[in-house]
Known about the structure:
Helix content is 0%, strand content 46%. The two termini are 39 Å apart. It is mostly beta strands. It has strands spanning 5-8, 23-25, 28-29, 33-36, 40-42, 46-48, 50-58, 61-74, 77-84, 102-104, 119-121, 127-132, 149-150, 167-169, 177-183, 193-204, 207-215, 218-226, 244-254, 261-267, 278-289. The strands form four sheets. Strands 1, 2, 3, 4, 5, 6, 7, 8 and 9 form a nine-stranded parallel sheet that branches. The radius of gyration is 26 Å and the shape is elongated.
Amino acid sequence: AAAAAVMCDGGSGYNHHHYSRHATATAARGTGTVMIKKPVKVLGAMDVNTLSATFFNASGSVSVQGSVTSGSLQANTISANVVQTTLITSPTGKITIDADVTMVQTAPAASSFLEQSSRVVLPDVWRLVSHESFDEGGEAQPHWNHRKLSNCGAKDGSDPSAPPDWFLGGHCNIATGELSRLVDSSSLPAHKYVRVTAKLHQIDQWDGQTMYAKVDDRIVWTHVGLSSPDLGIDVCGGSHPESRVGISMDVSVAHSSGSPVKISFGSTGSENDDPCKRSFGVDDVLIYVK
């Protein structure tokens, strides 16, 4: 619908039998208002100023410059200044919102999840502020105190012709000490909590040393490494089988707005430990706030 305004109510302009369940279109693009009083399904993308519908289903994306009002709204991607709907769900069980979210109860009677207050700011929506995969290779960004990267090559069974999976630290780069960075307060939206997730690798011979993570110099995660030449699989570094690779870390801590946050990953051990015999690496570092 490319017109400035489209209004449909299922009246004489429609074959009532065919549209009794939904109206279907391959795409709808315009600059005005779309108001549909019958259920509608869009197979492509929709781009309008304002959208109002009792039921809306788009297989592609929905971009609305103004507001969206719908009893049911389904789309792969929704972009709007205001979204009004009675229920938000996801077929994958996961909803990602890259913005501050405020839920406002307009009715005087409390609903099941808004009964404590007429204005509720969702507490469980994390906002991603940084994601470093190190896949560019070369060196890490200057905000890291140690910038050397490494990869496991084809030892992990990956296609030798494919681009390698780079990560910070690793074989012959670091055995003992810390990999750290400081996130400036100007890069952090207003928040009360910080969350850090990452994948960690314990490479080659670990004899009880502990790998750890810190937030603002406080240890928030640990993992002891134990390996044996007769157990495990050699997937990275030297010839010794790995203790663990791809260890998932997910921690959250209270943090004050207006302050920088320091993220560190390290390992215990001797300063004389050879990083070509034992090392650790860090990959896919994500930092969230809420």
